[in-house]
Amino acid sequence: MVTEKDDPQYQRLKELRREIAFHDYQYFVLDNPTISDYEYDQLVKELHQIESEHPDWTTPDSPSQRVGGKASERFEKVEHPTAILSLSNAFEESDVRAWYERISRLDERVKLADYVVEPKIDGLTVVLQYRDGVFTEGATRGDGLVGEKITANIKTIRSVPLRIPIDQTSVEVPAHLAVRGEAFITLPDFENLNMRLQEEGNKTYLNPRNTAAGSLRQLDPKLTASRPLRIFIYDIVSGEGNLPETQKEQLEFLDKLGFPLIPWEYCKTIEGAIQAALKWEERRNDLHYEADGVVIKINSLQLIADLGVVGRDPRGAIAFKFPAKEVTTQLNDIRANVGRTGVITPYAVLEPVEIGGVIVKQATLHNYDFIAEKDIRVGDRVLVKRAGDVIPYIISPVLASRKKDSQPYEPPAKCPACGETIERLEGEVAYYCVNAACPAQLIRNLEHFVSRGAMDIEGLGIRIVEQLVKANLVLDAADIYSLDKMSLLSLEGFAEKKAGNLLNAIESSKGRPLSRIINSLGIRGVGVRTASDLAKHFSDLEELSKATIEDLTMIEGIGPNIAQAIVDWFQLSGNNQIIQKLREASVLPAADLSRETQRFPQIFEGLTFVITGTLQQFTRDEAKQFIESRGGKVTGSVSRKTDYLVLGSNPGSKFSNAKSLGVRIISEDELLKLEE
Ligand code: IVH
After folding, report:
1. Ligand 1: which atom is nearest the Cα of residue 304?
2. Does the structure show a pLDDT above 60 at 261?
3. Where is 238: in which H helix or E strand?
4. Which of 89, 125, 232 to mutate to test the pocket of ligand 1 (most atoms within 8 A of CB)?
5. Would you state the pLDDT for residue 411?
6. Dihedral pair phi/psi, residue 290, rounded to 5°
7. Residue nearest to atom 17 of ligand 1 (CA)
8. Span 279-335, pLDDT tens digits
9. Of 59, 364, 524, 603, whose Cβ has the fewest other Cβ atoms within 10 Å?
10. Mutate to test the pocket of ligand 1, among 120, 297, 303, 318 (most ligand atoms within 8 A of CB)
11. Is residue 611 within a helix (H) or strand (E), and if so which, with residue range?
């Protein structure tokens, strides 16, 4: 009998899955990619190709299923295989020694015990289950007995193996394995995410832990996937079969299976463990994630079990907490920054204070809603926290020491940079300065325009940008290309050579690829990633400027807000002038004619299509590409202007709309026949 297993394509599919999982491991766990992004993308493309031809071959552990889950309305409750315990705390070295004395009296084996010391990650506990090596369930800790099922969200974390072991080593995988770890967001990722949210006019997060929690509890896994979550595994909660007997062996075993492992140190004695813990505290600021202490664990799992549990805390391990990096100080003033999209962000001016060895004078206040919610007032004593390299932030006012004559804070009505009126957009937390000529915005915009991911003009830093704006040499980004030597020489600090170098750098930035041009425009919500998605769909700025909201929202990853921002941007005449000027200065790249759009006879020219239901031979994207590459347009909803509705199985309301409007309804086969 011929089975699918004999099919060479099936064999190739299995090989691709293994390869992709291996490269994910190299990249996300070991931080050591061994192939280029391009080569990786090719593997993924081939996998998708085979799976779309054979949907029945798709399995839940396929790398294509990382972001496959549907949005749910609420999370199901799940019982953990065993109770997910907590830890008791020690705050001083003497507390650790007292703990040691206590348990030594309970069991004399403690005197001979060895230890493992790990950082205590300030994240969210998760429990992952594997059956026959396949990831089957992810849950939050909940109350320790029952958690919430967040399987689809956990799957989006790329360092979580969907199948273990990750490579074909000879480790024997238990038939059932439940592991425990901590999900978190690194400090740099947290700052980048907040910056993006702020630019898009969205609420920023308070701290990395909060962000990790919020991201893991999103009902739509697509949102979780867009968050930079990571995970460290440190424990086997339960399992069937031959399991390690010490914490050290347990960690080594988890490592072999391919889990992203918590950093750890083995110590022969309690003295060694305490010294290791103190060393961790010293290095605390060098970590790129937040740790609120270290965990000292007795190495023998049997001894831990025998020592028993007090309440929810096992006696055999203890959390040695670092001193909190929180202090109180006086809030002297609330000021604001103006970003490149005009977002006005408040910040606190503090009475200088030391937090964890650093003098802090300013702190973020997130947005004006935050100030109102916490009722933070100028003159208050405030509780300030500094976490790693993250900009310090205000937690709350200290109400007990509030002055009697203090007044609630009123957000400013005028832009602090240009004095024009401030507006608030509906549904957004941010306040905006809407003055297109606001110098603060112009400076931020230019800074972005010339930056690495955009036009990448070397030597054009913030100082020079400010000089150019102050001297009125540059009124918009396109003016950069009409600078000449004479005008540059009029600026302080510019001599022949510096001016020449800058002009050369400006000249060589002409003709950068479309994705960089799009990014450089500074459209709200459009960063490097969205810009490159857009560049794949449009051959030049001209075409992009004509796109409708429907066209744009058909592109994966572009929601209605960003689509609206793009359409709005191209509607402003000032922006069109900038584009015109860029074109005249030969800054724009030639239209990309290599695109598929040009290869087929344009038989659908002028026709508008809508697709509904599930198609058999195409995915949605493929059908869209098929139509667009032949000159047709695909929109998201049926109107009188629709020429054809392509009908798949289980159609939505578009089907009845089309019928009532008398739109021609065709099947997938008929669509293909139109071409003949
Ligand atoms: S061991 C019986 N190790 O800290 C095992 N916990 O206050 C108990 N945590 O709820 C946990 N890093 O979420 C352990 N390396 C680590 C940890 C860790 C973070 C969290 C964990 C726990 C809490 C205890």
Report:
1. 2
2. yes
3. strand 230-239
4. 125
5. 93
6. -90, 130
7. 120
8. 998 888 788 898 989 999 999 999 999 999 998 999 999 999 988 788 899 999 999
9. 603
10. 120
11. strand 608-612
pLDDT at res. 592: 64
**CA 672 to ligand 1 centroid distance, Å:** 58
CA nearest neighbour of 568 among 525, 533, 532, 539 = 525
CA atoms of 503 and 592, how far apart (whole Å): 27
Of residues 63 and 98, more confidence is placed in 98
Residues with CB under 6 A from ligand 1: 85-87, 118, 120-121, 125, 182, 234-235, 262, 295, 314, 317, 319
> Do residues 541 and 588 lie in contact, with contact meaning Cβ atoms separated by under 8 Å?
yes
Ligand 1 centre and the CA of 280: distance in Å? 16
- Residue nearest (by alpha carbon) to ligand 1 atom 11: 86
pLDDT digits (tens, 9 = 90+) for 441-491: 899 899 999 987 789 898 898 899 999 999 999 999 999 999 999 999 999
Q: What is the mean pLDDT of residues 513-521?
A: 91
Instruction: Quote the ligand 1 centre to 300 CA distance (angstroms).
Output: 17
Judge whether residue 509 has pLDDT over 80: yes
Average per-residue pLDDT for the chain = 89
Return the best residue to mutate from 87, 236, 300 for the ligand 1 pocket (most ligand atoms within 8 A of CB): 87
Q: How far is the CA of 142 from the centre of ligand 1 (A)?
A: 14
Ordered structural domains, the chain, with CATH:
4-65 (1.10.287.610), 77-321 (3.30.470.30), 326-401 (2.40.50.140), 439-596 (1.10.150.20), 608-673 (3.40.50.10190)
* Whole-angstrom distance, CA of residue 426 vs CA of residue 432: 11
Residue 203 φ/ψ, nearest 5 degrees: -65, 140
The three-state secondary structure class of 577 is helix
Catalytic residue list: 120
- Work out whether strand 644-647 and strand 608-612 pair parallel, antiparallel, or are unpaired: parallel
pLDDT (tens digit per residue) in 553-600 = 888 778 888 899 899 999 988 889 999 999 999 998 877 654 434 456
Residue nearest to atom 2 of ligand 1 (CA): 85
Query: 122: CA distance to ligand 1 center in Å?
Result: 9
The reported pLDDT for the residue numbered 233 is 98
The residue whose CA has the least distance to atom 6 of ligand 1 is 120
CA of 152 to the centre of ligand 1 (A): 23
pLDDT band at 168 (very low <50, low <70, confident <90, very high): low
Q: How far is the CA of 181 from the centre of ligand 1 (A)?
A: 8
Residue nearest atom 4 in ligand 1 by C-alpha distance: 120
Phi, psi (5° rounding) for residue 262? -70, 145
Structure tokens at 293: 């202490």
Q: At residue 301, what is the residue type?
A: L
pLDDT in tens, 169-222: 778 899 999 999 999 999 889 988 888 887 777 778 878 888 899 899 998 888
Q: Give the integer Cα–Cα distance in Å for 400 and 315.
A: 38
**Ligand 1, atom 10, residue with closest C-alpha:** 86
pLDDT band at 389 (very low <50, low <70, confident <90, very high): low
CA–CA separation, 255 and 669 (whole Å): 51
Residue with tokens 């995970």: 231
Taking CA atoms only, the protein residue closest to ligand 1 atom 9 is 120
| Helix (H/G/I), strand (E/B), else coil: 634 | strand
